[in-house]
């Protein structure tokens, strides 16, 4: 896509997200239908499904030939990244959504032939939309922003997945202890926002493609490194342990992993 | 103090906090002077000191005979809880303050002869003041609110101290794993706010008196349990591991600790 096309798509996506978020906020006091998926803390609500249905419908209507990877089953079985591929997470941080009615995100990522195009992480209750991509730059709502300083690991807070931190799986505890301190927010989207806005020096978690697709585009646009925890390139179509951090902290983390 | 006196004190304290918070927000982009205290992640800034100095000055001017316990040294060496004792934490969550310019709290607690009188936890950047006490009830800014539902441990998120969670000190990991999930916010005040607002079912951390004094008053006013991790009464004048949780979850946590 050329810049004009990307800007037109951006206008559409921002309108969809605003509609979906307004709808969600208006109905937050209504009856929640909560179901468990893989376990007692893997939840899905009627809001996840309705929001995903709405967003996927908008994409299909505007871009009928594109492929869609999404969390709650309204997307496609995507096998390869050729052409345009959308990633939709209607509610990232469903536990926070259910238990707190706060601190959750709506996310959309758009790739073309495997390349970053546009990413969106919307903090729904704070109405903070972090959006952008390599051709349009990085923005927080209406404001163009730059990426964070290239800080070392010890200079910043580090976002972690709770169980990985608690059990030191893949050295996550050692990494967090070498930072200024661990934080657990419970939403991959908000963790990515924190790293991109310079509030954390990094974040590690086991994630599904819809959890990291938007964040990867925004983080790379912000000059951050996004890799597997081993420093390898991300596979956009599978679950993996994702590390987003500064280029300064990346080799420090690799050394901790190898020691 | 009678209710009229308490209401008059409340008007004063809210005015002091508003002044201190406005001042802090206005100068956040100015030069930070950050010093380490006991270690590289135990920080104090010029803002902590100036804010404490201001709040302690207001208290001394209005209540010259009262005792003050405070973090940065402008208070007194308080040995007993008779009479009126104030607890002041100018910036709770200093690491968040320094690294994120967000997610920190200003706190004041007032006790009389060891009894709860008034507590204040101000989320400075969100401008959310949780305040109240046994005679005036619980309030979020201008709105009177009620306490959270009496949920079991498994029904809610649980706030933890990072190192205690990571090393399972005092069974903190086992407790968090029995909840819906662990969260680490990095500010005792904001953790207390979350529990009182029903966003978390509990919180455990090793805390100093100024970290828990305001929260204890508000949590008990909200119908929550505030004890040491062993279920014993809090000693207001020493560092200890504090547990705030629902009365439903308290015996569940005790059973985990004993197993």
TrEMBL record, chains A, B:
GO MF entries: inositol monophosphate 1-phosphatase activity; metal ion binding
Binding sites annotated in the UniProt record for Mg(2+): 71, 89, 91-92, 211
Pfam family, one: Inositol_P
Metal-binding listed as a keyword: yes
Cofactor(s) needed by this chain: Mg(2+)
Alphabetical list of InterPro entries matching this protein: Inositol_monoP_metal-BS, Inositol_monophosphatase-like
Matches recorded under Gene3D superfamilies: 3.40.190.80, Fructose-1,6-Bisphosphatase, subunit A, domain 1 (3.30.540.10)
Alphabetically ordered keywords of this record: Hydrolase, Magnesium, Metal-binding
A GO biological-process term: signal transduction
The keyword Metal-binding appears for this protein: yes
PANTHER family in UniProt: INOSITOL MONOPHOSPHATASE, INOSITOL-1-MONOPHOSPHATASE-RELATED
Stated name of the protein: Inositol monophosphatase family protein
Biological source species: Loigolactobacillus coryniformis subsp. coryniformis CECT 5711
